[in-house]
Every structure is written in C-alpha cells, then in structure tokens.
Design a protein that fits this description.
By secondary structure, the chain is mainly β. It has two helices and 13 strands. It has a five-stranded mixed barrel. It is globular. The relative contact order is 0.19.
Length: 196
Amino acid sequence: MKLIVAKTPAALSQAFRVPFENEGWQADVDTPHFTAAPYPLITNQRPVRLQCFEYGFFLYLGDEQTLLKRIPTAGVEQVFEKPAFACVKTQRCLIPLTSFCTIDTQTRKEVEVSIPDSSLLYAAGIYETVTTKEGEQVNTFLLLTQPLLHPAIKRIPYLLENGAHRSWLQEGPIAEDYFSSLKPFDVSRLALKPRS
C-alpha cells in the first residue's frame, strides 16, 4: 500500500499545530511503499513535533541481523496477538495522508483512494526504533489496516475520525478492546480512481 501526503511541511505543521522536525522533507507521490524514504508522522511519546520515520518494520533472520524484508502493514485484528507488534500498547503514531494507493482486486490495477471533501486523513500506526548491524538507530513505522467490505478493495488504512486522534496519541498503554470502542470510519466517503 502506497501512502501519499501531498502537503508541504508548512501545511502539515499548520494542520497539526506543531513544528516540523525535518524542514527539508518534500512530498513525493511516486515513492513506492517499500523504499526507505522518510514519511512524516506524530508519535504518542513526542506529540509536540512532526518527525520523519521509515515505512515498514524490519524483519531480520536470526542473530545475524540479515534483513529478510520489511513489513509495511498489519491488520488491527492481529496487532494485540502477535509479539512482533507488542509496541502497539505504548508506541503509537498518527500518520497523515491525502490519499493512498492499493490494488483493485478485480482489475489487478492500482487505484488511488481519497476523500473528495477532506484535505487530510489520519491513519493509525505503530513504531519502533531498531539498531542495524552497523550500529545505526533507525525509526520505523507500520501502518495499521482494517478489512473493507468492498468488491474491489479488501483492506484500507485504519482511518481515525477527528475525535479518536487524541486517544490514539495518549501516553501509556491502551486496552486490547481499544479498536472496538471507536466509532467506525464512514467508508462511504471514499472515492477511487485509476492510477495512470
């Protein structure tokens, strides 16, 4: 799933009412989701600043720290069950989007999904800091997704309505029934268009 945030750092700072840590960052709508390009977000442990993290958790092979792959997404129904996502209890982030791209399961072509009447969407994510075998610390994030009853799209980012932003960024652990307590996002507002 590709994430698109077609906003300037100044526009994001204004939307979140916090400063942007990476002033040189620029939105790139053509950056594929598996690249290490930094992506802006706000963490619950540092909610007073927009920071840039790399998209996708690292999955290593054993103690040798051989990178097998990056995990870009996880379903909300599994994050409390799998040890790899235990950080959901304390390390959460809010991911701004103007749209996202996914594969239409009927045509097998890429489509862009957005909300025509909204300038910014907010998705739930989790994050972690890993140390590479070279000793470098890297901040990474993972996008949480939800199932969608739609003929062409099976999953979308877990989008938070305005009232849920603050509770998602609260400090301290959250309960395992957190997602069931939220008002579901109105997916009828989503619009799809083919990507050229």
